Amino acid sequence: MSALTDMSPGRGRTQRRIGPLLLAGLGLAFFLLGAGWLAVDRFVIGRGNVALPTSLAGLARSDQMTGRAALAEIEHLHGKGFPLVDGAVARYGGGTASVWVSSTWAPLLAERQVKAMTERIAEGRSPFTPAGSRQVGDTTVYVLTGMGQVHYYFQLDGRVIWLAASPSLAEQGMEELVRALQ
After folding, report:
1. Please, are residues 102 and 71 in contact by the beta-carbon 8 Å criterion?
2. pLDDT digits (tens, 9 = 90+) for 6-27
3. Which of 77, 113, 116, 143 has the fewest CB atoms within 10 Å, measured from its CB?
4. Other C-beta atoms within 10 Å of 46: how many?
């Protein structure tokens, strides 16, 4: 009997059962993926675990937000596009200095975020003027001027930190902030 005329009992039924099983397995995989994402979103993202110093360059912390509220402000300022998992925003001395911290899943993502910020600023369409970079310990700190302040941004592990401060307090504030967050 040739392969073309093989009509073994049960062969067609087995092939007809595989399709629904594959679809059910695919549906279960999507369900588990969605449930996992909801759990991460509810129990991991925006937990408010980013700690900032209570004072900076001699200025007391006058305002702070953490977790989802901070992430909302950070995303409002810089847009979405990076998978941020936590954040903090603090103002010192009634706004004389401000700090934004965003946390990502991994240092590589924070590194990409800093690179993207540097490239966007270099395009010249932002209110900031690059003023170089410098090393503070093992950390590369990018320096900007603009909006009447000195701005610093840098990466520490999976976090990206931005400090804006009045020129007279900026250097001291940056060095204190790097030490406090390391």
Report:
1. yes
2. 555 555 555 667 777 777 777 7
3. 77
4. 19
